[in-house]
Specification:
This protein has 18 helices and 24 strands. Strands 1, 2, 3, 5, 13, 14 and 15 form a seven-stranded mixed beta sheet that branches. Strands 18-19-17-16-22-23-24 form a seven-stranded mixed beta sheet, sandwiched between helices. It has a two-stranded antiparallel ribbon with strand order 4-7. It is α/β, with parallel strands linked by helices and 509 residues long. 51% of the residues are buried.
Length: 509
């Protein structure tokens, strides 16, 4: 029996999982590491923390199970996208990595868009230049830390720094590179045109591969550290969303995933390049070779529910501790007592601004329709429905782009709640499937390694073998009609309130 490791270099920690050649999950381990915010709206991490975390996560995984470690034959990598790791000519980290959630680069986004041109950027990269993406971080370094900028020899994405530590190779994959604002998404290669326009050095960027392709082999000293063979392959892997889509089986036309974690992500498979020139959704290369995906991202999905729990759920948290239950479970039990629509209460989930469909950092959360009649259970239900309406925004844009939506796989914390699964099915009006594995990105990375090793002939057959459905929910058409009426009001609230968002942000509190 051969085994494969999937490694997910996340924002809060590193997760490692071990699967066998049938795609069965054998073991997993997690190691957390810090995130630094040296200034407001900054977010940085030390790449050495990722490397230490990766080693500990692998150790925890392997120590928890009794297998022949020489039977581990492949490693797949995934992780947080967009982050910038700057290396000098000795392969040393120049400064802390600037992360996907860092918001310091608004000025650089405008500068890059002006240099390249918005239409040209959309045509080549498929996305507007956003503060979280990689190119603005490079320009920020140039504008603010010129001494560091002069020392750059290589620029890597987070998971690719771990690849460098494991193999000594500089490489990335097409899905992760798509989120740099420097990649030609239709042609699946670095854009020499954009890189030239921005007067960047093409040699700074690593070779780019399709996700199941082999990029190197485990260094001998690393293999010895874990008791593995030094012929272990390391495949290109993918950005966290693309690898997560492999882990949930989004590998053919008509399949979509809806993930409600801290953020909310709607991920749709596409056989061809489809670009929304309004820039409301992202178009990236998929981890399936020769395919693409369209993705909508809302910033505070499960994050809105966590805010509700922390601010209004003290009673439920105390009760949960007594009953050995989850506070979220008690809150959703309360929400289940309320009819759809929460007695006319609508929640706008823009607690940290919004990306899809509004791309508005000034947007704020709103409860609309609040009356003396409303109680906590209706507020809870309104939050769950408001987040789901925000996810539906992405579904509407994807349909508008001509991308088919057949079955929807639901993952993340929102998938664990039967009520939230039902709310999603009724608001989206599509069948909803809950898949078995929670470790979507790491699991997808492990499957990509199995394809790279030749255990499966392609990604599609790997998913057909390994991805299992646990539960299926069908939409209620009558509730769908009611939700559609509410959704029309929900959609009209943002443009009505938009002028006031920036005004309130300009007030110094």
């Amino acid at each position: 029996m051969n085994y494969f490791l999937g490694i997910d270099v996340g924002t809060t920690g590193c997760k490692a999982i071990l699967v066998d050649e049938n795609g069965e999950l054998i073991a997993k381990g997690v190691e957390e590491y810090p995130l630094y915010t040296p200034r407001p709206n900054w977010a940085e991490q030390d790449p050495s923390d990722w490397w230490q975390g990766t080693q500990q996560a692998i150790k925890k995984t392997l120590d928890s199970v009794s297998i022949d470690r020489k039977a581990i034959v492949g490693i797949g990598l995934t992780g947080q996208m967009h982050g910038s790791v700057f290396l000098n000519n000795k392969g040393e980290v120049i400064r802390p990595a600037i992360l996907w959630c860092d918001q310091r680069t608004a000025k650089e986004c405008e500068e890059i868009t002006q240099i390249v041109g918005r239409e040209k950027m959309m045509r080549i990269n498929g996305n507007p230049v956003l503060a979280g993406f990689t190119a603005p971080k490079i320009y920020w370094l140039k504008n603010n830390e010129p001494d560091h900028y002069k020392r750059i020899d290589k620029i890597l994405l987070p998971k690719d720094y771990i690849r460098f530590c494991l193999t000594g190779e500089f490489a990335t994959d097409v899905s992760d590179a798509s989120g740099t604002s420097l990649f030609d998404v239709p042609r699946r290669q670095w854009s020499d045109e954009i890189i030239s326009d921005l007067k960047l050095n093409r040699n700074w960027f690593p070779d780019c591969f399709e996700s199941p392709e082999i990029t190197g082999y485990l260094k001998r000293e690393i293999a010895q550290l874990f008791g593995m063979n030094d012929q272990v392959i390391v495949v290109a892997g993918g950005g966290d969303n693309a690898a997560g889509a492999i882990g949930t089986g989004i590998v053919k036309s008509g399949l979509v995933s809806a993930s409600i974690g801290t953020s909310g992500v709607v991920f749709a498979f596409s056989d061809e390049v489809k670009i929304d020139m309004k820039g409301r959704v992202h178009t990236f290369c998929h981890a399936v070779p020769g395919k693409w995906h369209v993705m909508g991202v809302m910033l505070a999905a499960g994050g809105s529910f966590r805010w509700l729990r922390d601010v209004l759920g003290t009673e439920e948290k105390n009760l949960a501790a007594l009953l050995d239950k989850d506070a979220y479970e008690i809150l959703t039990e309360e929400a289940a007592q309320v009819e759809p629509g929460g007695e006319g209460l609508i929640f706008l989930p823009y607690l940290t601004g919004e990306r899809t469909p509004h791309a508005d950092p000034y947007a704020r959360g709103v409860f609309f329709g609040l009356t003396l009649k409303h109680r906590k259970n209706e507020i809870v239900r309104a939050v769950m429905e408001g987040v789901t309406f925000g996810m539906r925004d992405s579904f509407e844009i994807i349909r508008e782009m001509g991308i088919p939506i057949g079955e929807v796989m639901t993952i993340g914390g929102g998938a664990k709640s039967p009520l939230w699964r039902k709310i999603q099915a009724d608001i989206y009006q599509v069948p909803l499937y809950q898949v078995r594995v929670d470790e979507g990105p790491a699991f997808g990375a492990a499957l990509l390694a199995a394809v790279g090793k030749g255990v499966f002939p392609n990604v599609e057959q790997a998913c057909q073998k390994a991805v299992k459905v646990m539960d299926k929910v069908y939409p209620d058409s009558q509730k769908g009609i009611r939700y559609n009426e509410i959704y029309q009001i929900y959609k009209d609230l943002y443009p009505a309130l938009k002028p006031f968002y920036k005004r309130i942000s300009n007030i110094s509190w």
